[in-house]
Amino acid sequence: MSSNLDALYRSVIMDHYKNPRNRGSLEDGSLTVDMNNPTCGDRIHLTLKVEGGLIQDAKFTGEGCSISMASASMMTQAVKGKTVDEALKLSHIFSEMVQGKDYEEAEDLGDIEALHGVSKFPARIKCATLAWKAMEKGVRSEKGLEE
After folding, report:
1. 3-143, what's its fold?
2. Cβ-Cβ contacts under 8 Å for 94 (sequence gap 6 or more)
3. HEC states along 103-128?
4. Can you give the pLDDT at residue 147?
5. For the residues of 63-108, what is the DSSP string, one character each?
6. Contact, 41 vs 34, CB < 8 A?
7. Each residue of 73-107: b (16+ CB within 10 Å) or e?
8. Confidence class for position 99, pLDDT limits 50, 70, 90
9. pLDDT, tens digit, for every residue of 45-87?
């Protein structure tokens, strides 16, 4: 990856970290999931509003490193308005991407693609995937699926 692209990706990650989208929580009987990464102390509290198989809204609170919090911000943006199945597929693509595996090209990944470089830092993969794992746990419980 070119240094210009690396710099762009770093700036996107820092923007989401410093100016998180969808920070907060939802009321009205929304799904809630609390997860943490004991390795580094990242914590997330995710709330999702799922109706008719569609993720209507997503918010998070928590604390952690820039990768973890930026990823949570990006994830909440990416899944809003998606069906549960679309969100689970996107989560799978994201997981493959940050592990440096070949992944199915999706429609434009948007800001999420900025986390592609995490694959070079195996210790940070759990940081990047924490919010995504929380979303998966929440929507799978909503669908009555096993994890």
Report:
1. Sufe protein. Chain: A (3.90.1010)
2. 75, 109, 112, 115, 129, 132
3. CCCCCCCHHHHHHHHHHHCHHHHHHH
4. 45
5. E--HHHHHHHHHHHHHHTT-BHHHHHHHHHHHHHHHTT------S-
6. no
7. bbbbbbbbebebebbbebbebbbebbeeeebeebe
8. very high
9. 999 999 999 999 999 999 999 999 999 999 999 999 999 999 9
* CA 40/CA 62 separation, integer angstroms: 13
77: which 2 tokens? 């943006």
d(Cα 16, Cα 75) in Å, to the nearest integer? 11
Give residue-wise pLDDT tens across range 18-53.
999 999 999 887 899 999 998 889 999 999 999 999
In angstroms, how far is CA 79 from the centroid of its own chain?
A: 9
| Type of residue numbered 14 | M
Supply φ then ψ for residue 29, to 5 degrees: 70, 25
Residue 57, strand partner residues: 49
Q: Hey, where are the domains in the chain?
A: 3-143
Find residue 123's DSSP bridge partners: none
| Number of alpha carbons in the 13 Å side-chain half-sphere of residue 19 | 3
